[in-house]
Write a structure and sequence with these properties.
GO terms for molecular function: L-Ala-D/L-Glu epimerase activity. With about 325 residues, the chain is of the alpha/beta class. Helix content is about 35%, strand content about 20%. It folds into 2 domains: about 110 residues, Enolase-like, N-terminal domain (Enolase-like, domain 1); about 200 residues, Enolase-like C-terminal domain (TIM Barrel, Alpha-Beta Barrel). The strands form 3 sheets. It has an 8-stranded parallel beta sheet with strand order 5-6-7-8-9-10-11-12. A 3-stranded antiparallel beta sheet has the order 1-2-3. Helix 6 packs parallel to helix 7.
Length: about 325
């Protein structure tokens, strides 16, 4: 049976701007794959990420070439071997999971053994800014149980303390996006200890993180940019205490499930995160995150508007997807 497919680029405005150590954005540019067998339709969304050498145009070209090549039989395992990990494979992989659920009438959650997936508390991200602006943002978000704080290297001790003043009762995790150095690591770590931070994402640049093996880590350190797929885990032992699984890094739910199992076997704590995208991108990740220690699936909360139907967010509580959305 030959499948028809569509590849579309969409832009979704961000509420305000989203600022990390590598720059700022006011729009989320996503790529959506739609697959159909004539009676059932499946969709998947990805977010091309420049940090990993991806562009919207390049991802679209990869998708169209792959789908044209494998349109007669676009199974997940074949595509997993044919397309490298990343955004393009994620969109196809998740579209196929959705299509298979629609064809069979068996939801993805049931196929994963999740008879009753539960709503999860997601982190809510505070963009990088001055200590004063971040303290004010923390005050506005202080009702949320878990905050994720974007950091930038110099001045992070002041930022961490400011966010704690603004949100005295929220749990806090921080994300340096590779912006720390060996010179400021210890001082920033002490600031995290003093503020009661529970997790530090990717403090050092990927490829320059071997020093973490010898660093004092009183707060758990989580690999993000240093980790993509299960084969990456071997060199992370001793450097990191946790890993952040993102579907746009693994190349979809299929590889993410393998990574999750391997990470658990290695004793890593699990975080499931996201790029800034719509509910369609978050939906499979909500199922993946059911047993994760930390959940960071707030992409739609950072947008000025989301697609409809979307995930249901009640404050920081995100519910599993409805079949009308995905899966």
């Amino acid at each position: 049976m030959t499948f028809s497919f569509f590849v579309e680029v969409e832009s979704w405005p961000i509420a305000g701007s989203f600022v990390i150590s590598r720059g700022a954005r006011t729009e989320a540019h996503v790529v959506v794959v739609t697959l159909s067998d004539g009676s059932a339709t499946g969709r998947g969304e990805c977010v091309p990420y420049a940090r990993y050498g991806e562009t919207v145009e390049g991802v679209v070209a990869t998708l169209r070439e792959a789908l044209a090549t494998y349109a007669a039989q676009p199974d997940r395992e074949t595509l997993r071997g044919a397309i490298p990990p990343g955004a393009a494979r994620n969109a196809i992989d998740c579209a196929l999971w959705d299509l298979e659920a629609k064809q069979s009438g068996v939801p993805v959650a049931e196929r994963l053994g999740l008879s009753t997936p539960r709503a999860l508390v997601t982190a809510y991200t505070l963009s990088l800014g001055t200590p004063e602006s971040m303290e004010q943002a923390a005050r506005v978000a202080a009702h949320r149980p878990l905050l994720k704080v974007k950091l930038g290297g110099d001045g992070d001790r002041e930022r961490i303390a400011a966010v704690r003043r603004g949100a005295p009762t929220s749990r806090i995790i921080v994300d340096a996006n590779e912006a720390w150095s060996r010179d400021n690591f210890d001082a920033n770590m002490r600031a995290c200890v003093e503020a009661g931070v529970e997790l530090i994402e990717q403090p050092l640049p990927a490829g320059q993180d071997d020093w973490l093996e010898h660093a004092d880590r009183p707060v758990a350190v989580c690999a993000d940019e240093s980790l993509h797929v299960a084969d990456d885990l071997g060199h992370l032992a001793g450097r990191y205490d946790a890993i952040n699984i993102k579907l746009d890094k693994t190349g979809g739910l299929t590889e993410a499930l393998l990574l999750r199992a391997a990470a658990e076997a290695h004793g890593f704590a699990l975080m499931v995160g996201c790029m800034v995208g719509t509910s369609l991108a978050m939906a499979p990740a909500v199922l993946l995150a059911q047993d994760a220690a930390f959940v960071d699936l707030d992409g739609p909360l950072l947008l000025a508007r989301d697609r409809s139907p979307g995930l249901v967010y009640e404050g920081s509580l995100v519910s599993p997807p409805s079949p009308a959305l995905w899966g």
